[in-house]
Design brief:
The complex is a heterotrimer of chains A (about 150), B (about 375) and C (about 200). In chain A, helix 3 runs antiparallel to helix 4 and helix 3 packs across helix 5. Helix content of chain A is about 40%, strand content about 20%. Chain A has a four-stranded antiparallel β-sheet with strand order 1-2-3-4. With about 150 residues, chain A is of the alpha+beta class. Chain B is α/β, with parallel strands linked by helices and about 375 residues long. In chain B, the strands form three sheets. Chain B has a six-stranded antiparallel β-sheet. Chain B has a six-stranded parallel β-sheet with strand order 15-14-13-12-16-17, sandwiched between helices. In chain B, strands 2-1-5-3-4 form a five-stranded mixed β-sheet. In chain B, helix 8 runs parallel beside helix 9. In chain C, about 75% of the residues lie in helices and about 0% in strands. In chain C, helix 3 crosses helix 4, helix 4 crosses helix 7 and helix 8 packs across helix 9. The two termini of chain C are about 15 Å apart. The chains are: A alpha+beta (about 150), B alpha/beta (about 375), C mainly alpha (about 200). The interface between A and B is medium-sized, with 31 and 36 residues.
Chain lengths: ~150, ~375, ~200
């Protein structure tokens, strides 16, 4: 099958570093569709949907924003901080969505384990089921994120 | 038989050649837009070869319109008025233009193609924008994730800017980024020294430009910036000043403080600077020096948690909490804010509660 | 044939090209963009319009080229090459003209024009009109009808696929798999039109 121009552009954009340093795919040799399939399958095994995940990520970011860059308590087991930088990040999918450069870092108080995501990650997770290629700077590992954000 | 082959080949070739000729002729006719003259503000006029977009045509003419996305039509910053010759509004521009902008012929320069003569309007201050080649002569660590970069101007040798303005730094293509990008950073240096600009940059994880500056840029390297841009500046009044900043929001405020000192400004000034931990505070010594040099200046560092109170004299809590506790004359003050959108929104809310009028709050939001 | 019977023949050809002999759903031509671009109604609409336009115009051009040049010289066997060259040249030409005179139309259609230059449905329509020995008027009806038929099919598909975006589709069937199944079902539905028309 020939690929539509949109599809080709998306593939190239995900590999290129035009939008984020190092690109969205990192060192992952798979196609992004395979990455999405594999991550969604893993998420299903863990018992969650990407929608639920994105909603919870959004919720934590919202709770942490009033901290103005300092750590805010989310619940008994974790704290989160939100850092913002100038400019916006563009979703590589062809629909012209922009997200503030806002990075949420969640820390599990008990295990001191940290994970982080940007507002763009939340969108990519919820809308496109895309968690980033292995080795990319902003890959959200489904297993880690589920463990950290859902378990009290 | 032989004749039939010759005829067949001749017919097909001649039809093919005929079509190719038609295409070549029409390409010459339709796709060649020829030299187009562009008139700016009814004053300046130049001629450029048509076919490219307006933004890059202007850039080749050394006129820099701020654009964060580099002409992809995704940032909506390169707005300017095209009075004549732009053609109909394109679907790619629609999302970025308000109704009143559409009525006054505002367009996105990166989407408008130069196909014929154009008449455009560019704000005067943008015409003062130039490209500067600089040499990086010093990199200072301010905190664990903030550095100050000193850039000495090579060509042209000096820059005039208003304290509070920013420049765009060109990040060349490097290992982690395949194309050139521009990113905006406020000037932090002493405006008296026109041969140098300093930028305070905070590392953004995964950021193309900040990663370059932190990991690849070395002392002695050549750097290109263009500017100055922006209308964040100190007013001419005598009202007391409140600065509120966080992180790299320090940069324009520092520049303004230098300027106040240079011009003998006597306005009552207080500066609230927020950080998470005491070791994330930067340039405290310089601020203490300003306290001595300026007639009426007070620096209030604010940290979220203070475990070891002996370290520094600071307020504890969020910067906005410190403002609402500490600021007494909020109604008469002019407030200048620089930091993350969250911090600015929260600071505006607090200031309003304290009685500062809307038109007295100025900010440089990270957007 | 007199004018009236020519017109009524053309009308029959037109309607049958849309429904009973839909070039996509009966002949399965032009499947690549049908599957690749039918994800959203908006883009499908643009592509569909481009197909209608290109199909009608190239059918006419090719009819003229065939009747005036190839047929008299006995060069029927060259029609494949000729048709492709003419279609490609025409699309290039149109693209250039649209870009120059109507930037907003170019934004909407321009990106699809190169995509359908090498589309088998476009060539197929030209070849069918030769094989079936259509008159000039019937060719107009056929080209337009086939284009509209293709447009209808991709719009229907895009509508269905947009509704499917939030459905849970078995993993192995996601994407092209489910699209082909839907296309098959749509083709079955279109068989229902058979017998509506007679005499084409």
């Amino acid at each position: 099958m020939k690929e539509s121009p949109d599809m080709q552009r998306l593939k190239a954009l995900l590999r290129s570093s035009a939008l984020v340093a190092g690109g969205f795919m990192g060192s992952d040799p798979r196609s992004f569709i395979e990455v999405i399939d594999a991550d969604l399958a893993e998420l299903r095994r863990l018992g969650y949907t990407n929608d639920q995940l994105a909603q919870r990520m959004q919720q934590i970011t919202k709770l942490a924003i009033p901290g103005l860059g300092s750590r805010a308590r989310i619940d008994d087991s974790k704290e989160a901080r939100v850092q913002e930088a100038k400019g916006s990040l563009v979703c590589p999918w062809p629909h012209q969505r922009y997200y503030a450069k806002r990075i949420t870092t969640v820390r599990d108080v008990g295990s001191a384990e940290r994970i982080r995501w940007s507002d763009l990650n939340t969108h990519l997770t919820g809308q496109h089921g895309f968690f980033g290629g292995k080795g990319s700077m902003f890959r959200v590992e489904p297993r880690e994120v589920v463990r950290t954000i859902f378990h009290v | 038989m032989f004749l039939a082959i010759v005829i067949a080949v001749a017919v097909v070739s001649s039809i093919g050649a005929g079509l190719a000729a038609v295409l070549v002729v029409s390409e010459h006719f339709f796709a060649n837009y020829g030299p187009c003259s562009i008139t700016i503000n009814n004053e300046r006029e130049f001629t450029a070869n048509g076919g490219k977009d307006l933004l890059s045509t202007l850039t080749t003419e050394k006129i820099f319109i701020p654009s964060a996305c580099g002409g992809r039509g995704t940032c909506g910053l390169c707005k300017l008025k095209v009075l004549e010759g732009a053609g109909p509004l394109l679907p790619t521009e629609e999302p970025y233009l308000e109704q009143d902008e559409r009525e006054s012929n505002v367009r996105l320069a990166c989407q408008v193609k130069v196909r014929n003569d154009l008449r455009i309007e560019i704000p005067q201050e943008l015409l003062a924008v130039r490209e500067y080649t600089c040499k990086c002569t010093d990199i200072t660590n301010l905190t664990h994730d903030m550095k100050q970069f000193r850039l000495e101007l090579v060509e042209p040798k000096s820059i005039d800017y208003i304290p509070g303005q920013y420049v765009q730094l060109l990040t060349p293509a490097y290992e982690k980024s395949s194309e050139e990008v521009y990113r905006a950073y406020s000037i932090s240096s002493d405006p008296a020294d026109k041969g140098v600009i300093e930028l305070i940059i905070r590392l953004v994880p995964g950021g193309i430009c900040t990663t370059y500056c932190f990991e690849y840029l070395k002392v002695g390297d050549e750097v290109k910036v263009n500017g100055p841009y922006g209308d964040f500046r100190l007013s001419d009044t005598y009202a007391p000043v409140v600065f509120i900043a966080g992180g790299s929001g320090m940069a324009p405020i520092k520049c303004m403080l230098h300027h106040m000192k240079n011009t003998g400004n006597t306005r009552k000034t207080v500066y609230y600077f927020g950080a998470n931990e005491p070791w994330e505070l930067c340039l405290v010594d310089l601020m203490r020096k300003f306290e001595k040099e300026l007639p009426d200046f007070r620096f209030v560092p604010v940290v979220c948690e203070l475990k070891d109170s002996a370290v520094q004299a600071c307020e504890v809590g969020l910067v906005t909490e410190a403002v609402s506790r500490d600021l007494e004359n909020a109604e008469e003050c002019e407030a200048y804010l620089c930091g993350s959108p969250g911090m600015i929104d929260a600071a505006i809310a607090v200031l309003k509660e304290l009685g500062t009028a809307d038109d007295r709050i100025f900010y440089d939001k990270f957007e | 044939m007199n004018i009236t019977s020519q017109m009524s023949h053309a009308l029959v050809v037109f309607v049958s090209a849309i429904f009973t002999q839909n070039i996509l759903l009966s002949y399965f031509l032009g499947l690549c963009p049908f599957i690749g671009v039918s994800r959203e109604v908006k883009t499908s609409f643009g592509l569909g319009l481009a197909v209608i336009f290109v199909m009608t115009s190239t059918c006419l051009l090719n009819w003229v080229a065939y009747q005036v040049v190839l047929e008299p010289l006995g060069l029927h066997f060259f029609r494949f090459i000729m048709f492709i060259i003419i279609i490609a040249a025409f699309v290039q030409f149109v693209e250039m003209v649209i870009e120059r005179y109507s930037p907003s139309l170019y934004q909407r259609l321009g990106i699809f024009l190169p995509l359908i230059t090498v589309n088998c449905a476009i060539l197929g329509a030209s070849l069918f009109m030769v094989i079936r020995d259509y008159s000039f008027v019937a060719t107009v009806g056929y080209g337009l009808g086939s284009g509209i038929g293709w447009f209808l099919a991709i719009m229907a598909m895009a509508g269905i696929r947009q509704r499917l975006t939030n459905e849970r589709i078995p993993r192995g069937l996601q994407g092209p798999g489910i699209t082909l199944i839907i296309a098959g079902l749509m083709a079955l539905a279109f068989i229902g039109f058979t017998g509506v028309l007679q005499g084409n």
